[in-house]
Write a structure and sequence with these properties.
Blueprint: H1 12-16, H2 19-26, H3 30-57, H4 62-79, E1 87-88, H5 94-125, H6 137-160, H7 172-181, H8 188-207, H9 213-228, H10 235-239, H11 256-288, H12 294-310, E2 317-318, H13 320-328, H14 335-351, H15 360-374, H16 377-386, H17 388-403, H18 406-428, E3 430-433, E4 438-439, E5 458-464, H19 469-480, E6 488-495, H20 501-516, E7 520-524, H21 528-536, E8 544-549
Parallel strand pairs: 5-6, 6-7, 7-8
Antiparallel strand pairs: 1-2, 3-5, 4-8
Length: about 550
Amino acid sequence: MTTLTRPHAPSFADLFTPKLITVLREGYGLAGLRADFVSGLTVAIVALPLSMAIAMASGTTPERGLYTAIVGGFFVSALGGSRYQIGGPAGAFIVLVAMTAEQHGLSGLLLATFLSGIFLAAIGLLRLGTYVKFIPYPVTVGFTAGIGVIIFSSQITDLLGLTLTVKEPAALIPKLQVLTGALSTISPSAFGVSLLTIVTIVGIKKVAPAWPNLLIAVALASVAVLVLGLPVETIGTRFGGIPSSLPAPVLPDLSPAKVMAVLPNAAAFAMLGAIESLLSAVVADGMTGRRHRSNCELVAQGVANMASAIFGGICVTGTIARTATNVRAGARSPVSGMLHSLFVLLFIVVAAPLASYIPLAALAGLLAVVSWNMVEKHAIGALLRSGWGDALVLLSTLLLTIFRDLTEGIVVGFTLGTLLFLHRMSQAVGVEAAPLAVEDEADADVPAPTGPQADSDTLIYRLSGAFFFGAASTVGAVLDSISRLPKRFVLDFSAVPFVDSTAAAMLESFAHKMQRAGVRVIVTGTTPAIRRVLWSHGLRSPLVRYRRTVDGPSRTGG
């Protein structure tokens, strides 16, 4: 006879040991280093233009994105719970970062980033990372697509080279009204550079997917602008270039008034960062067959955000596209992510002056492709076809994200998804008359019936499904509708995995009603956990009696 033992609870070391330590313990050799060197270089080539583009779209300067990739990306890989996660600035944060920078300035943005790191580390240390998996799939698809729409709308000015006479609004409808009024100022040169960038990115992706299409497209556009002398705005003309080194570390302003002012922004950063980074880690798990440590990953994300803010960077999170690129490039360990950060640092040390020639229209074209890829067309189509519930959650999240606020979209989508789940679970609960053989466990004087009509004094009903507050009223209505009251009423719980307090309270009320009518209630097939819930609500002898079934495996105490 085989005895099943409960797995031991994971220790602190099991949950929070970085994957880098695990890899080194397993044995890390020259072959692994070679593979990580190639993959780290590949990802750095992708991250270089993307980090600058995201930082600019977020309302900051391009070097902020590079600082984020260098400092934040290094700590994500060095301390994280995934072997393959690549950290850096992410398109999903563009809206929140831009809003925070507009409301509180750069100092407020850095403080919010620092505080979000504290929140993320606390979430991980409290072992709450596993709860991120409860975000419904339609919500993630909806807010990701909504962010894609917002990112694209934010790039229209640079895509077309428009000249605006008023400040570009943040809200979508006013923004489109201002942009429509400025269409007469379109720059053919900027529009041509944007198209060249987009066509190059898409073309290389199809013809030579292993090539660094983003870097090639931006480099080609920069050369075209320089050689042809096109009147197009560049990083140099707008920002004066980028620094060739990291800044000295400085703590953000931690005054109580400033902290209270940016606290909501920091909470939004932490919530989105937890979702985005763990989704990215799950994608890496699916591609490699490995398993990440979610709480360790959140602690690493927290440290990375604090470090990024200290060095003047913006929000850090795990990035799905760069992580997938890392896996496809043959990464073996977190060393590849650490090398990616060092390569980005090397690029700015060696080639910072060249960044001045990068046209803003090229970076806008790059982000246009990124935003298009963020809209998961196949997933949206599948969810719209799957039923009204998933479609409602998806569209609510999508539209609220676009026209209201990202956080509001996630909260409303999650709430609707939860209500939809509860509705479906309540519909899955059944109660019906069913044959059942029972073996007396508590009373030898009561004969054991062998079917729903074993004798005219016994009535047996079987419950199935999770018996919780959403189904309590339905089950109660069925039980109350029974017209013939027998001497013995048997409730079979063998197909019930869970009972909550609302359901137990309803059964307690029903048992008292039966007791007043002179009917003995017998409960059978309960697990120890279910019996404890029933007992805590007064369902004890002599109000009810408990038995165990003999037509299946007996349950201890059931």
